[in-house]
Amino acid sequence: MTDIWQVxxxxxxxxxxxxxxxxxxxxxNKVMIGWVLAWSIFFLILWVLPRPEGLSSxxxxxxxxxxxxxxxxxxxxxxxxxxxISIPLLLIxxxxxxWVKGKPPLDVVFGGFTRHVVWLCLFAFLIGAVMQLLKLxxxxxxxxxxRIKASNVGRVIWGMFFVNIILAxxxxxxxxxxxxxxxxxxxxxxxxxxxxxALEARKAIIIQSLVYGTMxxxxxxxTAHLPNxxxxxxxxxxxxxxxxxxxWALLQFPYLGxxxxxxxxVRYYFRTGGVTIAGGHQKIQTMHKELGPMTPAExxxxxxxxxxxxxxxxxxxxxxxxxxxxxxxIIGLIGMVMLFTPGLFPFTWKQVQDxxxxxxxxxxxxxxxxxxxxxxxxxAAYLADGIHHFVTGMPWWQAVLALMVGTHxxxxxxxxxxxxxxxxxxxxFELGKQLGFHPAAFMLLVCDxxxxxxxxxxxxxxxxIAYGSDEFTMTDYFRVGWVAVIxxxxxxxxxxxxxxxxxxxxVWDPTxxxxxx
Length: 517
Known about the structure:
mainly alpha
């Protein structure tokens, strides 16, 4: 403590703060400006600005919290998880959620941390942590590449796509999968060589495998992408549009086809034709064999996950067999209890908790709380009404297109998909109602495009991880990414919207009965 005070006296408190921020790996200017700006605008909205007509005092308070959280998330002035857990606190202090008989509504403001999807998420995090400790993730990746006899860039990219699908079931959050696969992909790209053509091919492998493939597969599996859980929670409120694990996969299945288009574009742009892996398939086969046979612990983890997955798929409304009526989060809690059966795995709790993404868990709970507060306070309806004037009278496809494009402009300055969807999902859901469209289908089409924010690496955490490989530049990423964004937008309009209609939820028909009840 004395040393810190001496540093503060000799260099000035401001210099000490900047140095500490720099040591933590963040940009001092960005962090300090973000911190001051977040609190300044928070108090400005709360105490200075006049309340717009039609917005309740609670809605104004929630707006202050939403803006505060957004700036904190964008600037990373505080860890995202701490920002998430701070949202209930600010909702209490500002009375964004009105107090009841002089008491703060703790059950409401902490509701985001009691929703079943949060516990589903934690189960997935713990499974992912154990899998990383067992090195099962590396085994799966090399096993797939070995089986498809990957010997050139095209086969490697397709192999990593199948790896992403498998890991999407086991590892939640796109950033966690990207971090898991980074050393594997880097090991493979090192075999490609360093000729001019090889260096371009390495860019294609990294971007397509760690970013595009990760995000596309994330949309398909409910637990593989945290924004999915936010939208599932919004859809399921008041039992309006409930959906289970298997039904979500059916609803989003066609997105996997987008990988075919993006991989063609990426390989065309980087001219990967004819580039091969040094040593061919034999080298990958050797890397796979070096892992040795599957251990009993690995088989146990796969068996446990397979059992819990069956419970996920056989819940209420299951087209396979309705075995139970428990929510997904309850099944996740059952899975957690089973996961820590004494003697099942040779790891301490500290080893597991060190690899569990607690910050993201807190971020998700705070984000869900914020979406609920936006709905309850009338803020979501107010903001949707403001946007309504710009898109009213448009046919469904024009309204969706306008909001898709607008979303990508908003996302240029935001790193977190979860933070973006926490703001966008309740607004688009309400806007769908106001425009006379199916709110669930409308929200999905607009918010799913947020996942494919490919203009800058700083828009997606998985892309930041991929950028850390030092294989491509910002310019490389943008030049290939803007076309990929257009592909994603057109895919949503031309493929996903008709698919939703085929399943019985046309975006243009708000009266269509929900097919998954």
